[in-house]
Specification:
This protein has three helices and two strands. It has helices at residues 8-17, 26-31, 48-57, and strands spanning 22-25, 43-46.
């Protein structure tokens, strides 16, 4: 990875260790041929409905 770029997987592992829920768009996973076993520890397949619910109820939202 070029210098100055961040590894999203590494960042998600750190977030997951803080007991945060990590949802990954199921449609995006399907488009890229990813299985739930391909995700970083703590991440799970999710839906847009779940994302909407989390966004509405959250005090803070991180997107990257």
């Amino acid at each position: 990875m070029p210098q100055g770029y961040y590894n999203a997987g590494d960042m998600l592992v750190i977030v997951g260790r803080k007991s945060a829920e990590i949802g990954v768009c199921g449609t995006c996973m399907d488009a890229r041929g990813l299985a739930e076993t391909d995700l970083v520890e703590g991440a799970k397949r999710s839906t847009l409905a779940q994302l909407t619910e989390w966004t509405v109820s959250a005090d803070k939202v991180l997107v990257f």
